[in-house]
Amino acid sequence: MTLTVAQLSESELLARIFPRLHAGSSMLLGPGDDAAIIATPDGRTVISIDTQVQDKDFRLLWPNGSTSSGYDVGWKAAAQNLSDINAMGAVATAMVISLTLPRTTPVTWVEQLAEGLSAATVALGAPQCSMAGGDLSGGSELVITVAVTGSLDGLAPVLRSGAQVGDQIAVCGNMGISAAGWALHESSILPSAHTPALAAAAALFVRPEPPLAAGPLAARSGATAMMDISDGLLRDASRIAAASGVGLDLDGTVLREIARGLEECAVVLGADPLSWVLTGGEDHGLLSTFPAGATLPEGFVGIGSVVSMDAAGPAVTMDGQYFKSAGDGALGWDHFAV
């Protein structure tokens, strides 16, 4: 018989979770007291928070027959939060987790969640980040909220508002692959029928791989603006444009070449691979701007240039052609439009 969280006390469940949480070098006092204590040698703390809600951000059972294990959900929760710290040019120092669990949730699922959080933190390149504790509650659906703190290690934070006319636009990390993976999960194509290319896209949707070393590297290399691509390239580029009071003109030739890597998935699903590159989120790559003429850091690819804002206001174009307004949900993920 499957042991559920309703059959354990809170203390008993925590006793199964705590040993599975990674303890990094930043933690001075870990779980067990009312609050943890984290070292802040830089004197400044970067902080971000993200939530995953069952049937909004993940499904326990997908239309293609795939299931979301606790390990998968834990990995993704860690990845998306670590990516936000990365986008500021910082390194993660600590993580706290809040779980809302239905009474029927298997205890093994929760244990796997803790293991996925810890495994992603180490494997993605943030071993110094400590799992410092969190909170448990009951509810009608699974909700996983993770807050992460980070250190700038003496660097200036890279904001969305620093892009200057003439700057290069560059990206680092995967683009459009997670969107292809999501489409596969929402399709009727069974995982057993996946080719290697389809299986890779499905896997990266479940367990994204943000380039955590790239954020601090970009900051040291003079990035003028930066953000995590979580809601799609166009939507997130429009946020940099608005914050900086500029226009961003994307190079269609480069983006179409990136999209070519998604053609096999697109043919199977009857989709446009360029649309995945432009509007697909949750790859958690970096969108950055760098001064004109600067050598781009390793891993970054130039995809356009920053241009003057015209009468239409801050906008994103491709080869000089306008898209719809940045407020249109078609340009990327919107939590309240689905």
Pick out its properties:
338 residues; alpha+beta; 7-stranded mixed β-sheet; 4-stranded mixed β-sheet; 22% strand; globular
Strand order of the largest sheet: 8-10-7-11-9-12-13
Shape: globular
Order of helices and strands: HEEEHEHEEEHHHEHEHHHEEEE
DSSP helix count? 10
State Rg.
20 Å
Proportion in β-strands: 15-25%
Largest sheet: 7 strands, mixed
**Strand segment count:** 13
Cα separation of the termini: 37 Å
Q: What is the SS-derived class?
A: alpha+beta
Mean pLDDT reading: 93
The portion of residues assigned to helices is 25-40%
Q: In terms of per-residue confidence, which ranges show pLDDT below 50 for 5 or more consecutive residues?
A: 325-330
Describe the structure.
There is one protein chain. The chain has helices at 10-17, 70-86, 107-123, 177-185, 196-206, 214-220, 233-244, 252-260, 263-269, 273-279, and strands at residues 27-29, 37-38, 46-53, 91-101, 130-138, 143-151, 168-172, 225-229, 247-250, 285-290, 300-307, 315-318, 321-322. The protein is an alpha+beta fold and 338 residues long. The strands form three sheets. It has a seven-stranded mixed sheet with strand order 8-10-7-11-9-12-13. The chain has a four-stranded mixed sheet with strand order 3-6-4-5, covered by helices on one side. Strands 1-2 form a two-stranded antiparallel ribbon. β4, α3 and β5 form a beta-alpha-beta unit. α2 (70-86) packs parallel to α3 and α4 packs across α10 (273-279). The protein is globular and about 60 Å long.
